[in-house]
Structures are given as C-alpha cells and as structure tokens.
# Entry
Amino acid sequence: MTLLTKFWEDNHNLAYPEDWAEGNTYTNSFVIPTYMLAIGHPELPGGGEELQYAVWDSVVDTIQEWTGQKLQPSSLYGIRVYKEGAILAPHVDRLPLVSSAIINVAQDVDEDWPIEVIAHDGKAHNITMKPGDLVLYESHSVIHGRPFPLKGRYYANVFIHFVPETSDENELPTYMVPGSLYAMDWMKENNKIPKEQGDLLENRAAHLAADAGEMDKLRRIAEFSRGDLDAADSNGWRPLHEAARAGRVEVIRFLLDNGADLNTRTWEGAGGSALYWAMQNHGEDHPAVQLLKEQGARNLKPAW
# Structure
C-alpha cells in the first residue's frame, strides 16, 4: 500500500478522463467523468511495470488462499478516480472465472460510499472501505456496484483481476471453450499454440459458424486464411458440408466464392458430397439444393 500511496501523492494531478465506449452503462461518465491514473505508465514518477507487478504480488497470496486456486494476473488498469455524483452501476465482469480485489487508495468524501454486493445467497451487502482497505470478490459471478451517487470530492480505487493459471504454456485459459472463435483469436494474439493445433481450432470454428449460419464469424476466419474455409475436420467434413446439411444458402454461396471444393466428399472420400447432404436433409426443392445444382454440384452418395 505504501507504493500506491506514494504514487498517488506524486501523480494524482495527472489523472486523465477515461474514454468509455459509446453506450457504456457501467458508470454515469456521460454526466460525471471518471479519471484514470495509469500505474503502468513508465513516464510517471514511480510508475511502470515494476509497480504493476508489485501490486499484483502484494495481493496474489491472499486471493489464492481465498480461492484455493493457483492464479495469474489478468488486468490492472490503474487508479480510477470517481468524482462527486458518480455512480458505478451494478454489474458482473465480462470474463468468467475472474477473481478480483479492490484497494481503496485515497478518498475525500462527506459520507461513506459503500460498494454493494449481491452475494450468492441473493442478499445485498454494503461494504464500506477506508484508504488502505482490501476487498476480495468474485467479479465474474457476484453483482457489484456503487449505485448511490458519491457525496464528496473524489474516491480513488485500484481494481486488480486474476484468472486461474493454466498448466501448459499452450493451454487455453480455463474460461474459454476450445474450438470457439474467441479461443482461436486468443491463441493467435498470444502466440500460444503450434500451427497444427491452431489449424484445428480454426477448422472447428469455421464448421460451427457454417452450421449456425454465422456470416460475421466466417468473414473473420477468412481474414486469417481463406483456405481454412475449405479445411476438413477429423471426419473429413468441411464447412461446405455443414452448411449444406443445415440448408444455409448464404453460407454456401460465401464458401464457394472463397474457393470451397464443390464436390469433395466426407469421410476421406467415402462419404457424401455437399449436394447429397443437402438433399438428404431438405429435399430437392430447397434453395440450398437448387444453388448447389446451379453451381454444377454432383450428388455423390456414401460408399457404404
């Protein structure tokens, strides 16, 4: 706490207005702006990565003992400063399995400004913090906020977030679903995965998106590599087969425009073609069947 207090005392006049996304409802910043003092900023006296990790290290043992899990840092933005009239709407944090801590760094208030927490028993609890106090909470599952307007000049907090530690450098965080587009993006951004495994994740994501008719996801996958839109899974199924079986006309057209093989068969060449699966599931008059026929598709039946 001494490091944070010193950093606050040396730099509090350098806090800058936070740039919340349009439509944000977490705070009433459109009326009462919040301010951020970035503790990771190396040009601020006492700031930088060294201070960030010192703050994480100061609480990790306590929060690991509380959760019973081995944790790793998730995010630590800085000291958020609320001004008179500010509120923090009740909410949960976006990512699952996030365990968090709040440190009250400084305040100048006319009355207490408690954080309201809706516990797992459904009951509301108001927790009053003084400078130097630490509160632990499951920010992904427990509704929390400060719904009553602040009465005073300012209230300065640090929010410290952790996620469960993964056991392998190439392993997904435990809150991500393997094969999801979110998992694929995370792996690419963090360079955490061998190419072969990355290809598999991409293929599965394309298959799921094709089956569900999720065009936005397919366009994003195409940005990485157009060829992935025609890659086979372990059963020889390609996104075009999934789209045909689901009757996704727009997806079929998109995949063909991006180089999908019209007449490839499932099961390593022993299964059915896209036209076969479309006809089996939707009949000859379905628009998906008509589109495939117009493109020259062949009705290739399974060999068994």
